[in-house]
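QA checklist item 7 of 12: single-chain prediction sanity check.
[x] sequence parsed
[x] length recorded as 402
[x] structure emitted
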Amino acid sequence: MRRLRACLGAAAAVTTVAAATTALVATNASGATTALSNRWYAAAPYLMPLDNNPPDASAIMDATGLKAFQLAFVLAPNGGGCSPTWGGTAAVSSDTAVQSVVNTIRAKGGDVSVSIGGYGGTKLGQACADPAATAAAYQQVITKYGLHAIDFDLEEPEYENTAAIHNEIGAAKILQQNNPGLYVSVTTAGTADGTGWFGKQMLLEAKSQGFTPNNFSIMPFDGGFNGAASQTSALTNFNSILQSTFGWDQATAYAHEGFSGMNGRSDTGEYFTQNDFQTVLDYATSHNMDRFTFWSLNRDRQCATPDNGGVTSGTCSSVAQSAWDFAKYSVRFAGVTPPTTTPTPTPTPTPTACKTAWSSASVYVQGDEVSYNHHNWKAKWWTQNETPGAAEWGPWQDEGAC
């Protein structure tokens, strides 16, 4: 259990920061002068801009027509405190690397949303003292990047923490009120019956606080799913949960429902192909759902061997595909036809030399590098006999093909 730390003095900053937001959005150096339509923010796939061998956003835009990206993830500092960071390590306040990615996307007519939370790490809802302090931390992110959209990715282990979820939902409501027009999505785990007990408790928390985002999205993967039919069934069940929780009719529930998939091989060995994405896309559009996105663009390319040896990777899909196949479904959801012409390909870089082969008997500490399955890997912490790539959130960081 990670120790929670209060975010002192942040509550008083909420009103001051929020009051300046409109002007900052209009003059932000990154060029956030005009928001895209909500449909684009609803279609934005996840992109890790600092980890998992980040792809060139500009190249994806040229190849697919994609305009919006969901940048992930903002967390509390690994060392404790109530200030926003990228991945727990890079302070938002002093960031230039992510800002450069945002500038590139906006220069080509696109825009970004930022996702907060995700699986693993300490979330600001866990670290900050109350909803106002949590909102003040997130307001720094909105102001820094001139955001028109934000995503609350509330899942394990945070969504098992009642106080943390109270802070996150309360913060989302404050941000929604203080940033008129802000597109807000809430993403949580999916199960065969829609979402699990903790997901349902999160919805009840939203109801008790009188908070309604643009959508509640579920992630129907890593839970015993098998292709599109199991996913659309979960979406149907989740629609019923939204109806019963908020008293909505079916159409209203679908208008506040979203899908967040995982392209290719999931963490638990499920497979979702291009055909599965098309089936779920057809379901989403025919039911007038509000969101269709996926995890992640870092994985939206073929591995060195198409099936990657039956291993899930953070940098490729482990299924046969052309680059950015899955991004094109987001483009279709946004209502734009992907380009039919093939852009001039980027030359293939010279492969990186492979490090010493991984050994199940060896002990590795943070920073140690090995090679496994034609990829180099770096240890994130002490580990022994944990196969690189066996779990996306395991002890090994994929450094790309070698």
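[x] summary fact logged: DSSP finds twelve helices and 17 strands in the chain.
[ ] second reviewer sign-off
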